[in-house]
Specification:
Radius of gyration: 26 Å
Strand order of the largest sheet: 4-3-2-5-6
CATH class of the domain at 49-141: Alpha Beta
Strand content: 15-25%
Distance between the termini: 82 Å
Largest sheet: 5 strands, mixed
CATH topology of the domain at 49-141: Nucleotidyltransferase, domain 5
CATH architecture of the domain at 49-141: 2-Layer Sandwich
Number of helices: 3
Helix content: 25-40%
Number of strands: 7
Length: 143
């Protein structure tokens, strides 16, 4: 004799986890890409050491990385948002555009400790010509 079930099988008795796995994989890929973009914005530059200073809020900061020149006698390269800015005039136009979008923008200069100040000086001139009054030099904290 066959026994009868008094309660009918519910259609949701088995949970399909495939869509959940798809969403989790998309989130993992999203965070990997965002992390890569953030690390590209801050290129590996050996910053000068400093025992004083404060950590600035980076919401209104325009980061300019100064890379050593490819060969002696050539100018240093300016990297902005993982793109080569090229000349100082190009950098000035980028700073002016950012100033229009965010009036309270400040510039953070990330330059190698091995570069002379003459390599960083065009950034100050470009910021002044673009109307930006706040320029920070990034440094590695010591102690």
């Amino acid at each position: 004799m066959r026994s009868r079930r008094l309660i009918a099988a519910h259609p949701f008795s088995e949970i399909n986890v495939t869509p959940l796995i798809d969403v989790v994989m998309c989130l993992i890929i999203f965070y990997l890409i965002v992390g890569k973009l953030a690390s590209d914005q801050r290129s590996e530059v050996p910053l000068p050491p400093s025992s004083v200073g404060t950590h600035e809020d980076e919401s209104e900061v325009f980061i300019v990385n100064v890379m050593p020149p490819p060969a002696p006698g050539q100018p240093a390269r300016f990297i902005v948002d993982a793109l080569d800015a090229g000349s100082a005039a190009n950098l000035e136009s980028m700073l002016a555009q950012r100033k229009k979008l965010k009036p309270k923008v400040s510039v953070q200069v990330r330059a190698s400790r091995d570069l002379p100040f003459g390599a960083v000086e065009p950034i100050y001139r470009a910021a002044r010509n673009a109307g930006i009054t706040t320029v920070y030099l990034a440094a590695e904290p010591t102690g």
